[in-house]
Design a protein that fits this description.
The protein has a single domain, classed as Neuraminidase, CATH 2.120.10. The chain is about 5% helix and about 40% strand. It has helices spanning about 10-15, 30-35, 45-50, and strands spanning about 1-5, 65-70, 80, 85-90, 95-100, 105-110, 120, 125-130, 135-140, 150, 160-170, 175-180, 185-190, 195-200, 205-215, 220-225, 230-240, 245-250, 260, 265-270, 275-280, 285-290, 295-300, 305-310, 315-320. Strands 1-2-25-24-23 form a five-stranded mixed beta sheet, with no helix packed on it. A four-stranded antiparallel beta sheet has the order 3-4-5-6, with no helix packed on it.
Amino acid sequence: MTVSIDEINPYIMQQTNGQLSLNEGDVPNTQLKGQLSLNEGDVPNTQLKGQLSLNEDVIIHDLISPTTLYIQSSEGILAVSNDYVLMNECTKRRNRLIILDADLNLKTLRPLRKTTILEATHCGHNRFLLLSETQVFIIDAKNMSSMEVIKEIIPYEPSKVFKSCCTYGNDNLLYLCYAAWGTEVERWKKQSDWELVKRYVPVNDTEYISNIKVNDNDVLAMTIYNSITDQWRLEICVAETLSKLKATALPTSQCDYSLSLVNYNRWLIYNGCSNNLLLVDQSGTKQNISYIKPIKNVALFRRNNLILRTAEKLLILIIADEEIGKS
C-alpha cells in the first residue's frame, strides 16, 4: 500500500502495529534485489527470518516497516541517525523538513524563509546539521522546535557558496566543500564552538567536487568532474590529509554525482540523470546496480532499512546487512 506523507499518522492509527506494505510496482527490479539481497515481496531473507515472523501482523523491532511515502522535492534531502530519518518536502506550494521515527511518527518544521537546504548530515545524539549555500544550521530531531544557525561556520569569502558536507569522528568533525572550480574542502572541529582546522585544495582549476562522504575507517570519498576531459571520477583519500589513495573512473553524466555510505564502509554512487548506480569499496572495486528510476538519495537506517528517495517518493525496505551489494 502507498500513502501520502500527510496520511501517515491517521492511517497508522487504523492499522495493526502501523504496518504498511508495498505495491508490486514499488519493489526494486530483479538486479537490485540480487545486489541488495531482497526477496520477492520485500520480506527479509533467511538471515532475518529467524528474528522476524512473516505473518501479516509482524512487529518489527528497531526497524521501520516496508513503506512507500509520496514526498516531492526539488532537493531530495535524506539523513539518518540511530532513532530518526530526516527528509524534506520542497515544492511550489510547500517547503518543510520532515522527521520520522521507527514507528513512522511524524514531525515537521518549516525552514527559514528563502533558505534552501542542500544537504543534511547526522551530528550527535538526535541532532542533524543542515547545509545551505551560505549557512549551516542544527536541529534537534526529538523536539523539532527551531533551526539554529551555527554562527562560526560561514564561507570565507562573500562570493563563495557551500556545496556538500559530511560528519565523522563521533560527529565532532565536519567536512565542507564549496561550489566552485578548484573546489576547496574545509575541515571543522566541534569543541566548545566550531573551529576551522584546515582548508584543502585537492583539485585543480578545471575540476570541481560535487559530493563528499567519510566512512568509519577515516577514508574520505569525493566525486570529481574534470571539464577538460569531460569525465567524472571517484577519488578516495585519507580523511585527515586528503592524500589520494585511489581514483576510479565514473560513467559520463550531465548530472552531478552523489554519495551515500552503506554497510562495510562502502559508498553507493548515483545521480538524478540515470537509474544506474555503483557500489564502491575503499579499494576502488566497483559493482554495478540498476534501479527502476533515477535515485535522488539513499540512506541506511539501523543497518537493515534501505531508504531510497526518488523525485516523487521515498521507499523504505528491509534488507540483510550481511549481504548488501553481494550476489
